[in-house]
UniProtKB/TrEMBL annotation:
Name of the protein: DUF4327 domain-containing protein
InterPro entries named among the record's database cross-references: DUF4327
Taxonomy, superkingdom: Bacteria
Pfam families, per the entry: DUF4327
Length: 72
């Protein structure tokens, strides 16, 4: 039985949740603060977030509150 493919944004969301739990970022911090953690990968993730309608000023908590990453 094949395992379902996990959307890349779900994995990203788990990484961000881990950063919050580790107190590296706070839920009230702006999304742009996580750029410091992702370094060279940030341009990719920034584009993905923008494509899903996020701005870099949105709080991290909005990213964590997404329940499904459906692309339509």
């Amino acid at each position: 039985m094949a395992q379902p493919v996990i959307h890349p944004m779900v994995k990203f969301q788990h990484q961000i949740r881990s950063l919050v739990e580790s107190k590296i970022v706070r839920p009230t911090d702006s999304i742009w603060k996580i750029a410091l953690v992702f370094g060279n990968e940030w341009s990719y993730w920034k584009q993905e977030l923008t494509d899903f309608g996020f701005s870099m000023q949105d709080p991290v908590s909005e990213l964590l509150s997404v329940e499904a990453w459906d692309e339509e």
